Amino acid sequence: MFDQLKNIDSAFKHIRLFSIALIGACIFICCYTVYKSFVLVSETQGRIYILSNAKALEAYSAERKDNIPVEARDHVKTFHHYFFTLDPDDKMIHSGITRALYLADISAKQQYDNLKENRYYSNIISGNISETIDTDSIRIDLTDYPYYFRYYSKQRIIRATSIVIRSLITEGYLRNVARSDNNPHGFLIERWNTLENKDIQTLNR
Known about the structure:
This protein is α+β, with helices and mostly antiparallel strands. It has two domains: about 1-50; about 65-205, Nuclear Transport Factor 2, Chain: A (Roll), CATH 3.10.450. The protein is built from five helices and six strands. The strands form two sheets. A four-stranded antiparallel beta sheet has the order 3-4-5-6, with helices on one face. A hairpin with a 5-residue loop joins strand 3 and strand 4. The N and C termini lie far apart (about 120 Å).
C-alpha cells in the first residue's frame, strides 16, 4: 500500500517537473519569437524601395545624425552649383538663382542683388558667356552649432575667345531647418561670404 503511494507521489513529481520544464520551454520560445519578429519589423521599416526605370531599388533609412557631414557637404555644393552655373539665358539664370536662394538666407540674396545691380547677369547674356563651377573640397566643422563651412572651387568663365579659370573660396554657417521639396537637406546657409575670387589662368580658344 505504502509502496503504491510512493510510486504515485514519485510519478506526480516527475509529471510536475516535466510540466514546469515544458511551460518554461514554451515561454522561452514565445519570447524568442516575439523578439525576432520585432527585429524583423524594425529592419523592414528601415528599408525603402525606389522605383526607377521599372526596377525596384532598395534603400535604407538612417538617423539624421549619421548623415550630417554628407548632407551638409551636398547642401553647400548644391547651393554653389545653382548660384554659379550660368548660361546666357535669362530664364535659366532666374531658375538657378531661385533654387539657390531657397538654400540660403538674406546674405545670398544681398550678393545676388549686388551682382544684378552691377549688370553682371545682363553682361553674361549680352556677351554670350557661360559659367560653370567645379568643387575642389568642402570643409565642415561639426564641433559647434551652427556648423561653419569653407568651400573651395574653380570657376570656368567661357567667352567667345577665351576661357578664364578663377579660384573661388567662400565661407558661411549651416543652420537646421525643416525639410521641403525646395530644401531637401534641411539646412540653411547663413552669413555667406566670399573670401577669394581671382583669376588664376586664361586659355585662348
